[in-house]
Amino acid sequence: MLSLAYVLIVQGSIYAQDGISGINEANQRVRSYFDAGTNLMYAVGALLGLIGAVKVFQKWNNGDPDTGKVAAAWFGSCVFLVVVATVIKSFFGI
Questions:
Q1: 88: buried, middle or exposed (CB in 10 Å: 19+, 13-18, 0-12)?
Q2: Which of 31, 46, 53 is nearest to 82 (CA)?
Q3: What is the pTM for the complete model shown?
Q4: Per the UniProt record, which residue ranges are transmembrane (predicted)?
């Protein structure tokens, strides 16, 4: 029984890997997704900007009194997406 435990401990220590290399690999993989993620956020912001422009134009043509509030809300959401993407990119140093 003791020899079995010894064999398991020795075999386990031989095949054990350094955890730092795994952490570094995971770090590199996650960082590789940031460029695609920020580009996706810019694209979503542009799409929301176009949709918002059409909605604001329709409200303006119909003479709705709350056109200014709707325009501010759509513009604010687009600016928020761009700022978040930029802050994420600068925060993680990519």
A1: middle
A2: 46
A3: 0.59
A4: 40-58, 70-92
